[in-house]
Amino acid sequence: xxxxxxxxxxxxxxxxxxxxxxxLVASAIAVATPAVAAMAAEQSSxxxxxxxxxxxxxxxxxxxxxxxLTDAATAVVAAESSGLDLGDxxxxxxxxxxxxxxxxxxxxxxxxxxxxPVVRVQATAEITAVTTQTAExxxxxxxxxxxxxxxxxxxxxxxxxxxEAAALANANTPDGARxxxxxxxxxxxxxxxxxxxxxxxxxxxxxxxNYQAYNADGGxxxxxxxxxxxxxxxxxxxxxxxxxxxxxxxxxxxxxxxGSPCSAWGHSQSVNWY
Length: 274
Description:
Largest sheet: none
Oligomer: single chain
């Protein structure tokens, strides 16, 4: 009995310890379960497929990327074949980063909901970089084209001015003045060869067909010997330096005063002036 009595408390203590351990284990499981659940949920979100909105945005990025690549290639070809001086800077557009991003976006099915936005943002940044380079290349080509056009326009203007100066110089010679007078007389007044012979005789006598002729006695000036010379301004502001302007004034004067060069020549022969 004593032996049995002495063992009874020990047995009860062991039962109590076992129960306590069970309570502790249960409590630990109860505490750990939310963390484990959270970890499981987090892992599930990491592995989740992208939403339809994000997938659509990625598709738009792919379209924009392809457009940017096409535009860049077109700009490079145009710049290199333009023959324009684009300076020392390269005409290349760096599309390597965009091509890599496009490769990742093309494999959209392998990207998770967390990965796809990152890849899409990176692709958007590369699209912006390529678009900027393309725009800069276009701007350089446009500037070079404008510069070339301006140079060609300046050269054309210089050539035209030179040709005009040469024509003026030729027209200001006695032979050039005669040719101009014959053409204007025929075209504007219908005066043929006979009238021109009279005109030639008249102005040969008056000035020798010299647009710089000046009569110091009376002030008569130029090929038609206008008195004063400033009268010829009605035919053009360049009357003092342009034989053709003087001729236009002189023919108009003859037509108004005498009707024809032969009438003017006849008057000149009669009274020594016209």
